[in-house]
Specification:
About 5% of the residues have low confidence. The termini are far apart. The relative contact order is 0.06. It is built from 16 helices and no strands. It is mainly alpha-helical.
């Protein structure tokens, strides 16, 4: 499911926010991470972990970086080290669960997610993580109440709204799905997946103008999503907006969509543009002379 990778990092984002600017290694690590300087950030997190061994945050954020890089053994080792001293540290339990799930150990993952829920009864992120786990397992009727629980913890939890949107979509309730995806976008305007799914639902009901607007918003959020450019191109073609469609398919080709697929669509677009150009160049009909 598209949302799962971002969920791993939400706990880290919570820990990265609101740091004091005292200039210590932890603060420098946060700053370097925010600038995209991952190696420097790792070095500073390691130093912070050595200097403040009782603070779980440096090890946790370091483990999240490792997890993102696919270094799962190293990440899990750090999470376990945190739990040795902080047995109820909910974000560590949740991320261990995500590693266990990735390795196909679903029973262990569920136990870890539930441990995370028990350890933190206030944070909506923990509940939404577990909700997505249940959703990925196809346990929709169990996932719904968990997402509702997340919203009781925090009504602005965009991930929970997205989860409820996906459940509604899978159950064929387009109206509820659109409402919930809309809430997800309200509380997280950068949620590209909510944009894309809303656009598809709008297109399915014939509301192509709204669908195009949502896809245009999506490509502004992340211009590297070739699949979104391609979907946008097709909708623009259906409306005869050939020049805009041309740009969309060209962007799709630049961002990973197979060239053959883009060339097939562009051949139609170029033909229509040629027809339009020919029509504009025809001399006006002056009528039959007397």
């Amino acid at each position: 499911m598209a949302k799962s990778s971002s969920l791993i990092f939400l706990a880290a984002c919570l820990l990265l926010a609101g740091c004091a600017s005292s200039g210590g290694p932890y603060e420098r690590a946060v700053e370097q991470y925010g600038r995209g300087h991952i190696d420097e950030s790792v070095s500073q997190y390691r130093q912070a972990a050595r200097e403040t061994p009782l603070d779980p945050r440096p090890k946790f954020n370091l483990a999240v970086i490792y997890q993102d890089e696919g270094r799962l053994d190293e990440a899990e080792k750090l999470y376990r080290q945190i739990l040795e001293k902080h047995s109820d540290y909910s974000p560590a339990w949740a991320n261990i669960a995500s590693i266990q799930e990735r390795r196909g150990r679903a029973v262990e993952a569920e136990k870890s997610y539930r441990r995370a829920l028990e350890a933190d009864r206030d944070n909506p992120w923990t509940a939404s993580q577990f909700g997505f786990f249940l959703l990925r397992a196809g346990r929709l009727d169990e996932a719904g109440p968990v997402f509702e629980q997340a919203l009781k913890r925090g009504a602005k939890c965009s991930n929970a709204w997205f989860g409820l949107g996906e459940i509604a979509e899978k159950k064929g309730d387009s109206r509820a799905a659109l409402k919930n995806y809309g809430r997800a976008l309200l509380y997280n305007p950068s949620d590209i997946e909510a944009c894309v799914r809303s656009a598809q639902l709008r297109a399915d009901t014939g509301d192509r103008d709204s669908a195009i607007g949502l896809l245009q918003r999506a490509v502004k959020i992340d211009s590297r999503r070739g699949d979104v450019h391609f979907r946008l191109g097709r909708l623009l073609s259906e409306q005869g907006r050939w020049k805009e469609a041309e740009r969309a398919f060209e962007q799709a080709a630049k961002n990973g969509v197979p060239k053959a697929d883009c060339d097939r669509e562009l051949s139609v677009v170029y033909a229509k543009l040629a027809e339009e150009a020919a029509g504009k160049s025809d001399p006006p009909d002056m009528g039959t002379p007397n």
